[in-house]
User: What shape does this take?
Amino acid sequence: MAEDILEKVTKLYGRKRAVSEMDLVCREGQFLTIFGPTGAGKSTILKMIAGIEPITSGRILFNGKPVNDLPPQERNVSMAFESYNLYPHLNVYDNIAFPLRAPRWGLKLSAAEERRRVEEIANFLGIGELLERLPQHLSGGQKQRVSLSRALVRKPEVYLLDEPIAHLDARLKFSTQSLLKEFASKYRATIIYVTHDYREALALSDRIVVLRKGTIEQAGSPEEIYYTPVSDFVGRLIGEPSMNLMDGTVVEEGGKVLFVSGKSFRMPVQGSLVPALKKSAQSEGGSATARLGIRCEHIRLSRQKQSDTAFALPVYAVVHEAESTVVTFELEHTFFYARVRQESGFVDYKVAENLWLDFDQDSMFFFPKTIELSAKA
Amino acid sequence: MSRVDLDKVWKIYPRGNVIGVKDLTFTVNDKEFVAILGPSGGGKSSTLRMLAGLEEISRGEIRFDGKVVNGLGPAERNVALAFESYALYQRLSVYENIAFPLRARHLPKAEVHAKVTRIAELLDLTDLLKKFPSSLAGGQQQRVSLGRSFVRQPNLNLLDEPISHMDQRVRAEIRARIRHLHDEMGNTTVYVTHDQAEAVSLCDRLVIINKAELQQAGTVEEIWNRPANRFVAYFVGEPSMNFITVRAQGDASLEVQTAAGVKVLKLGGVLKEGYAGKDVTAGLRPQQLKVHRGVQQGNALPGIVRVVDFQGENTILTVSLGGKAEEAVITGGLRAVVAATERYVVGENVWLTIEPKLIHVFDGDAVILKR
Assistant: This one.
């Protein structure tokens, strides 16, 4: 296993900048996830590390050695793609065994040892029964697990996994996620993982790099990314429903600082948050505007007014989940969501009923506006 | 806006004599929102197609408000459909797409206009009415498709996986809109999906179908707390129920093998006769297992944390009991959901506890615990 470093790596497609001066370190034994929306440059980075995609400028180092000029087969990496890229004429066993037979690595395994390794990984991923089948007789989810097995069967310097479980159904995704995590810790594998799914990113990674248009927006542990997002962009990427964002103006009144949005929303901001609010405020048409972010689980709902920062809104819709209920409100043409845990009693809120909303200010953020909010998709 | 009854409905495909739907009976009450939930290939789509009148009913009856509709086509049944693929008319504006089913019924212009305007308001499409589908984002197109299906108050609104392939941000929004529209218009809605989270979140009642047969029909609460069989117990809930092999001790407790010896779990009911001393399967929901650091007495199992999955709001632990109790879960261990503020590390010793009344017991697929 190796440490991998990108130094000021840039990738241009024609004039389009896919990746800009990227600095990235993946330590030996680390599970690093490159996370971001479609088109952020995630796969491009992975392909550059693999050597499939030439880099425009900068350096890539494995264990301190530049590999810029090495072709893919000379870089000791193992890769799984979202598109499975299986050999259609080989059965599942031979597909998985393929990298073990590659002359470059000179493994020269005995037939018995090869079978042991293939079966171990295939059983691990729950496809042990399918070894004799041809890819054309597999479902998408099964193909994807074959592709992942083929990537994991060998011990390279680094595993490069590009959305390797995107096509599994929700249930299987979940168990495969835990498996991957166990695999990583068992073999102390260095893994660079690409996903657009925040659940995978949070659950799997030692470290997450959030990508935005070819540059790093934030890097940190899953906890850091979740609890202290640096921007509305990062906040919005995580959670289902994702973080509520609302725009408002900053008003100072009688020594208090208020955040005001529309007619019904006037919230006094607690002292500890005022510096963050002022820092993120932008001047717009004569008044200071800012963007508030809060996750749906940090909004308390009640029929009575519980605090002087609470405000009332009519319910737009109520949807139940197994152990919680999500109540939707509409404010200034954007939706926002509040999640109520069922432990705190059965929820029988009705559509159009007026409820009091109380924001947990310790879990609230203020951001400069860096994304379009008209996310009315 | 009708009550819909399926009475012993069968779908048999003559070629290969394949049974698509077997002896299916359930009711959708007037103004109710029901989800038909099940894995793909289980018979959901055949049921939907028979409801819509797109497919012949082999045996049995479908009734709308007590009237048999077996022989009626989709138009005569007055059923509205929205599919996963939006199937919008590309050459028509958003306005005309939504107006289409009304025009097909030769409604007067003024009425068409009033209805289209109202539904556009509800779906926040007012600014888009003059645009054409090709210039809209996926979520917007789906809203147009929903508008078209909801615009004329049909007897029955059928939605076939309308949001399964949208990205999560849009999903929460469309979900809220669908529920809002249903409540606002007083429709009867049947929603077909393979996604249990989707079904649970939107619907008043679930109808769970697998292998062409009805597994259970009931409210979310009923299905969550009293699953009719192991399939239902497994299918609803994320992460799904843990299943472990245990031995029945008498008729009201279970013996569980752990690395620290045999532990006993008391049950909230009694087992059916003849299971004492036999191997059975216990079902424990990850959301209902409590995790403790200190030693626990009574309905407690000791184990070691093997995987820690941080999920943001909460964390999912995989806890190995170390005995031979583990099964079904590939990683070998029990999943338990804890608040993310509690930080556990891999290798840590923990105790899991569960209330007796929350334990499910199965023999094969069958529930064998009487409550």
Summary: Chain B touches chain A through 49 residues (CB under 8 Å). The domain at 4-234 of chain B is CATH 3.40.50.300 (Rossmann fold).
